[in-house]
Protein: NADH dehydrogenase
Amino acid sequence: MARRSPTPGAPHILIVGGGYVGMYTALRLEKKLRRELKRGEVKITVVDPQSYMTYQPFLPEAAAGNLSPRHVVAPLRRVLPRCTVLNARVTELNHDERWAIVQPVAGPPERISYDYVVMAAGSVSRTLPIPGLAEHGIGFKTIGEAIHLRNHVLAQLDIAESTKDVEIRRKALTFVFVGGGFAGVEALAELEDMARSAAKYYRNVSIEDMRWVLVEAADRILPEVGPDMGKWTAEQLRGRGIDVKMETFLQSALNEEIELSDGGRFPAGTLVWTAGVKAAPVVRNSDLPLDERGRVKATEYLTVEGVVRAYTAGDNAAVPDLTQEGQFCAPNAQHAVRQSKVLADNIVRSLRGKTLKPYVHSYAGSVAGLGLYKGVAHVYGIKVKGVAAWFLHRTYHVSRVPTFNRKVKVLADWTLAMVFKRETISLGSIEQPRAEFELASREEAKPRTHVA
Structure:
């Protein structure tokens, strides 16, 4: 059925970002404004460089091969059939005049007008000017980074297996993760678990040959699960041979030579940076008010402070936590999904002239996976660890992953993983798909030597 064109003068809602807040807000608006959208009385546009939303809590499992990468993303156009989805970046936004400059993935920039804006651009990795970090480090926020890291780790095992050079082997089998929050700990734990399984198929690489290092500036890891559970997690990681260094900083990574503040110095072929995030750059290119950390100032109603018809939530927003005086909501999926529901409802209330409602959500707790059958959780004051926490981690996140289709596929992946062995194949060549063709072309172009 053809989509009806918007009625002239119909409110246009611009959603900047297609992540947790952006997608869930649009999904809720489609549900609440079903009739208006069908009649063309309102228009919703979602702008994001990617055509999908990534469920980031599943990135570690995708990197470890427990889940298919395609099953941890949700296609925006399929999930949001009544919205206009633009694969582009908002490079500038002037809310006073209600326009935004949109730069498509290909083609010239475009200026679009709107009536309501939702700033849901999320966050990007927060890096520091550490020598060598930009050249050798990799983040862990996107599905592309997760796939690359999986291929890279397995490729390092291949390198070590195929050489007798001691220094090359030592460098290839050293893996450094900076940041002891959820992203860093879960990524390291899942990938170490995968490498441990893969080592069984190598003749010259053993678990003892590998060195896994976690570097954290604070005096504990996983602060979200509390000091006791964080200490237990550190002990568990150390029991697996992982070197957990707390109150330690990365000082240099020049030439893939790691230098730490505790005096440690060693070569490493893998450096993963998960030490914090910052608001996406677009917020700085807007006229929306920002706090000292570069986040959009939000009210408890998820409106932008001092501005009308502007809303925000998620990682790029400083949202007051009404359950803790003077505090802000943590930048995590739990808050983002719930905030998007209240945000969308408040836009609908605004359109219909009703009073807005505040966002109030008491933090339920946290769960983390540490590899197959290993986990830690602190939920509603109850501390859980081991297999029970791992099961709780999977149960919670499969309930939150968007769309029934994705839930079924994730469960199917897990079921198959319990029956069959984990795949340990590096497909690094997919990152340079033209390399073989270019080599063949160069060989063909060489002058041929005729032998009499």
Q: What stands out?
A: The mean pLDDT is 89. The two ends are 71 Å apart (CA to CA). The chain has two domains: 12-125+278-351, 143-275.
